[in-house]
User: Which sequence fits this backbone?
């Protein structure tokens, strides 16, 4: 209970009440809700919403591939010593 009350200082009492109500709605069959669960609910309440999708004429020219070996081709360029350094 003390940890929940400590959250009031940063989130405000009204926000904590809403978070507790949400956490209790999602409570497991035992009815017990941990402080970690409450913190998770508070975090999700604060999380930024994704912006809406927009229409665009842009097209993807190279589809993404799950091929990390493409990045190995960059290594020689990155590993070359600079001029004048040994």
Assistant:
């Amino acid at each position: 209970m003390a940890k929940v009350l400590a959250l009031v200082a940063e989130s405000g009492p009204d926000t904590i009440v809403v978070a507790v109500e949400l956490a209790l709605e999602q409570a497991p069959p035992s009815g017990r809700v941990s402080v970690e669960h409450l913190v998770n609910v508070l975090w999700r309440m604060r999380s930024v919403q994704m912006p809406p999708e927009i229409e665009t004429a842009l097209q993807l020219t190279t589809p993404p591939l799950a091929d990390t070996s493409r990045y190995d081709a960059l290594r020689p360029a990155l590993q070359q010593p600079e001029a004048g350094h040994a």
In short: Residues 2-46 form one domain.
